[in-house]
Amino acid sequence: MESTDRIGEVVLDVQDLRTYFVTRWGVVKAVDGVSFQIKRGETLGVVGESGSGKSVTALSVMRLVPSPPGHIVGGKVLLEGEDILQLDDGEMENIRGSRIGMVLQDPMTALNPVFDIEDQVGEALRIHKDMSGEGLQTEVIDMLRKVRIPAPEIRMKDFPHQLSGGMRQRVVGAIGISCDPAVLIADEPTTSLDATIQAQYLRLLRELQELTGVGIIFITHDFGIVAKMCDRVAVMYAGRVVEQGDVRQIFNNPSHPYTEALIQSVPKLEVKEERLYSIPGQPPALWNLPQGCAFADRCRYTHDKCHEAYPDTFTVDEGQIAACWLREKEAIATES
Ligand SMILES: Nc1ncnc2c1ncn2[C@@H]1O[C@H](COP(=O)(O)OP(=O)(O)O)[C@@H](O)[C@H]1O
Ligand code: SF4
Ligand SMILES: [Mg+2]
Q1: Is the Cβ atom of 279 under 6 angstroms away from ligand 2?
Q2: What is residue 93's predicted lDDT score, i.e. its pLDDT?
Q3: Are residues 228 and 331 in the same domain?
Q4: Do both 155 and 189 map to the same domain?
Q5: Is residue 308 part of a domain?
Q6: Which protein residue's CA is at the shortest distance from atom 26 of ligand 1?
Q7: Of the candidates 312, 283, 319, which has an alpha carbon nearest to the alpha carbon of residue 48?
């Protein structure tokens, strides 16, 4: 899949992003030095257990971190070369919903029950593209046709409850791409949805990408879905990216023990396992991180160095990096 024409120039370049929450327990370092890039037409999976900082990363890119208690305290978010962390609130509002879109998996939370479909699909076009009247209506019909809503001229007069779940999701998709964004963010819902709805959602995202070439940030705790959906993967643990690479590199040669454990805990369809592997222990509290590797208490390869300092990032292979002291230990073992 890599190096096809589908994938183009970098559209989003996140550099050393830091988002902290000031709480009564202390400073929660929810995102602490996260970097990744997304190219046109590419899907980056951001994966990790609950609480690892995935949603806060997405909220930071949208500049929707609840503040207080949250603050983006460092880093850059370059959207097509421009650092959007430097924009004022008004400029940022123009970017949200136009150059960065969001497609929520649960259409009922994404749609407003009291407005018809035409209103909701047209809203971003009205605000960001200054469209109105017949021109706007034609564009709305066109958007709905693109996401394969049958008889869009008629269906656009419907309210959300008059559409099937699948169609509602397509409407959310149409809203997400209505202004032809450079980046789409797809964050998993907090409560798990029906498997059929989820499958429809994944198909929809792929279709939207084929239609527009949009770069997608796909957030999930489920490594199994990453294999189906993504070109690249960033594995998050305790607010940091611990490994990053192409999907194939990550699955064929996971080089961080956390990635290895996550892959091991994916259920395999062809094997009926008696008990699924689950990673022992719990992630550490983000307001009280150890000075060494945050995974040390749960890692099967922990050694002295791991407790001393946070591991350096090393290059595993072209395009693949990991932050772990194991490689250093192995190198010393090979030398001696
Ligand atoms: N409004 C908030 N106030 C304080 N802490 C928060 C807030 N939102 C998120 N956090 C902290 O940030 C961490 C990362 O959260 P989140 O990004 O939602 O995780 P996930 O990877 O499950 O999406 C959590 O451990 C949580 O404690
Ligand atoms: S640095 Fe040490 S504890 Fe952390 S993942 Fe690597 S081997 Fe395990
Ligand atoms: Mg989340």
Answers
A1: no
A2: 94
A3: yes
A4: no
A5: yes
A6: 51
A7: 283
| 229 and 280 part of one domain | yes
Task: Give dist(CA 26, CA 22) in Å, integer.
Answer: 6
For a ligand 1 pocket test, name from 31, 55, 71, 282 the mutation site with the most ligand atoms within 8 angstroms of its C-beta: 55
56 within ligand 1 shell (Cβ under 6 A) = yes
Peptide bond into 68 cis (omega under 30): yes
Is ligand 2 within 6 A of the CB of residue 284? no
CA 91–ligand 1 middle distance (angstroms):
26
Q: Which domain holds residue 124?
A: 108-178
Q: 221 and 133 share a domain?
A: no
CATH code of the domain containing 219: 3.40.50.300
CA of 281 from ligand 2 middle (Å) equals: 15
The finding on whether 7 has its CB within 6 A of some atom of ligand 2 is no
Q: Are 159 and 117 in contact (CB under 8 A)?
A: yes
Instruction: With beta carbons less than 8 A apart as the criterion, state whether 232 and 42 touch.
Output: yes
Centre of ligand 1 from the C-alpha of residue 159, in Å: 34
Cβ(326) – ligand 2 distance below 6 Å: yes
Quick one: DSSP state of residue 84?
G
State the alpha helices, DSSP H only, in the chain: 54-62, 89-95, 107-110, 117-129, 133-146, 152-155, 165-177, 195-212, 223-229, 247-252, 257-264, 304-308, 326-335
Question: Does residue 23 have its Cβ closer than 6 Å to ligand 1?
Answer: yes
Q: Are strands 100-102 and 10-23 parallel, antiparallel or unpaired?
A: unpaired
214 and 77 in one domain?
Answer: yes
Q: What is the pLDDT along the chain (336 residues), one digit of tens a residue?
A: 444 578 889 999 999 999 999 999 899 999 999 999 999 999 999 999 999 999 999 999 999 999 999 999 999 999 999 999 999 999 999 999 899 999 988 888 889 999 999 999 999 999 999 999 999 999 999 999 999 999 999 999 999 999 998 899 999 999 999 999 999 999 987 777 788 888 889 999 999 999 999 999 999 999 989 998 999 999 999 999 999 999 999 999 999 999 999 999 887 766 665 577 889 999 999 998 999 999 999 999 999 999 999 999 999 999 999 999 987 666 666 665
Q: Is 295 in the pocket of ligand 2 (CB under 6 A)?
A: yes
Instruction: Looking at the structure, tell me whether residues 63 and 198 fall in a common domain.
Output: yes
Query: How many distinct structural domains can be found in the chain?
Result: 2
